[in-house]
Design goal:
Largest sheet: 2 strands, parallel
Strand content: 5-15%
Number of helices: 3
Shape: globular
Helix content: 40-55%
Strand order of the largest sheet: 1-2
Structural class: mainly alpha
Radius of gyration: 12 Å
Low-confidence stretches: none
């Protein structure tokens, strides 16, 4: 597998609470991989609840900018 085809997977997104450090880490991961590598998010949490879950509008805005909130 080539380096450019490596994807990032966020599995079971929304099962554990996010503290400030985890929110910042998630935002950094999304920013680092934007337009560089595929990002796959698997979650039982409805997309409509992601804002409430992250408690940070900027994280969801980054996810929307990447195009993950298409559901």
């Amino acid at each position: 597998m080539s380096k450019s085809s490596t994807k990032t997977e966020l599995d079971d997104f929304g099962l554990q609470p996010l503290d400030q450090n985890l929110r910042l880490a998630l935002l950094q991961i999304l920013e680092d991989r934007y337009a560089k590598k595929p990002i796959v998010v698997a979650s039982q949490l409805p997309v409509s609840e992601w804002y409430n879950y992250t408690q940070r509008k900027v994280v969801c805005e980054k996810v929307e900018a990447i195009g993950l909130l298409s559901a």
